[in-house]
TrEMBL record:
Membrane-crossing residue ranges in chain numbering: 25-52, 64-80, 86-118, 130-148
Biased composition (Gly residues): 211-227
Signal peptide positions on this chain: none
Ranges of compositional bias, category Pro residues: 266-317
Protein name per the record: Large exoprotein
Low complexity bias spans: 237-252
Stretches for region Disordered: 211-317
Amino acid sequence: MRGESRPHDQRNVSLMGYDGYESGAYAFLGIYFTIILISSVIGYVVGSFLMMKIFDKAGITDRWRAWVPVYNTMIFLKLGDVSPWLLLYCIGGTILLAWIGIGVLFAIAMQVLLILAAWRIGLKLQKDSVWVVLFIFLPVVWMAIVAFDSSRWNPNIVPASWAGNGFFADRTVWQGVPVQAGAAPQGYGQPGYGAPQGYGAPQGYGAPQGYGAPQGYGAPQGYGQPGYGQPVPPAQPGYGAPQGYAQPGYGAPVPPAQPSYGQPAAPQPPVFPPRAPQPPSAPPAAPQPPAAPPAAPQPPAPPVPPVPPADPMQPPA
């Protein structure tokens, strides 16, 4: 009896060990996926918040755009002068072609597009090209620096090298997202090229108020090209064009009128007649008599007779 029960006990011990191993594996997977989920939520919140700050600098009106997955990355590419539709191509290629091993190439291409967009955004925020290295290794740190530093958005930079490529360059116009001037190549919008709608000057970077063209330096009226009619010479600033002036070969010149040799104009009568003199408001005051008559002159005093000397021999004084 004891010999028969020993194999049965060993089977129970082995089943209990297998059950314990399976429970430990499930617990490990549960903890792992929980950590991954929490990390993803934290990364999404932090990344969306930093992207919202960058969008504020770029002049994007609605902040909710930074909190929509995939759409916020498309706007990030658009600010970096890269076509936002390329992101959808890369995501679709990664998902659909992953089963044959080509999907990883689309994932790498998506990372390259993000690096190019970060490089262009850094240039518009007064960052050197070397800052893109920080984005490659620590993208969250890069976003935090450009989001909270004192740099200002300046889209008027040198156009991208791929700006003339219709596949890679940004040609989209979305309401609420400013069009970037650096997305268009040099010379884009000249006759024969048809500039797309919405590619105007960026908001906040136009000519300062009060600095218009100086008076007298505008385009002369009636100034045409040779062969299209008699041209009118442009007026010099502050000096009117002389009457009858014409270029040689376009007709006999009319001499200008000599100053001060014409018939003088007749004097014009005054508009209002002269006013009559007004009488004085009061007659002049009569002279006042003196307060007291002048005093009569006093008669001169009689001369004093000489005093006879005491000594008759002494002459009088």
